[in-house]
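Exam prep: given the inputs below (a chain plus adenosine monophosphate), describe the expected output before reading on.
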Amino acid sequence: MSLITVGTMAFDAIETPFGKTDRIVGGSATYVAYAAINFVKPVQQISIVGFDFPKDEMEELKRRGVQLDGVEIVPGKKSFFWSGRYHEDMNTRDTLITDLNVLADFDPKVPDSYQGAEFLMLGNLMPKLQLSVIKQLVKRPKLIIMDTMNFWMEIAMPDLEEVLKHVDMLMVNDAEARQLTGQFSLVKAAREIMKMGPQFLIIKKGEHGALLFHRDDVFFAPALPLEEVFDPTGAGDTFAGGFIGHLAKSGDISFENMKRAIIVGSAMASFCVEKFGPTRLKEVNKNDIDVRIQQFKDLVSFDIELV
Ligand code: AMP
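Solution:
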């Protein structure tokens, strides 16, 4: 089954308590693609870059099976740039700079060759562009998932509310779920978000795992306790790539299979944070992924007799 991914391909400058990077490759769609391609081919990418985005990064994505026909290259402009600083706990961060650059006039076009995809991952991007992609699809995908962030809630809330009406699942972190609804309780926030459109909701809680909601059902998956978390940037997008990649591989979008997918997403995210940028994601192979998924199984499985 094929998967369309939409989002940013960017340069990031990151500060963590452990170090600082200059401009390294990042972007929501970059992370989603590097994670999802381990499970599903092709991944059909829609994004925009400037003259400065490294050609070898594009080649690396293509070599892995990511189609880039939907990635526009603008010769005279710079790529999207984001800079962030993580707090001591690595779970929260401040955005220092968001330079839209090429993103300011992005008008995504879905190539004809992408039509018919069964899965759509709307990575973090301007909500009206996420909606434009949905509207261009001749056949509605079997599953549409969207990610977003506080930045878009602050400057484009009405557009965001509109996209929510067209998607099956929203993926946000706990702070974003609270900001979106004004509810502190995540259970109440989940109920409100599901009234806004999506039938499914994932709330990510960084190193404290993730919650999956659907109607009155809730499932919780922990994050792997890691000795070292080097850079959490892209962990959310990598989680999304692993999650939807697993669903697209099996074609099964039941709640039961989503429970498996949340573990796959968490396993992929646990790799992402081990090095700066997408570096670690490029190193791991199928065996590494299988071993990590097994570690997750061991982490949460136990026997108990109910008397
Ligand atoms: P995550 O850590 O999963 O939230 O994703 C971080 C990635 O999102 C970085 O690589 C950034 O380039 C990208 N990013 C940051 N801000 C935005 C934004 N406003 N819209 C789209 N992508 C963004």
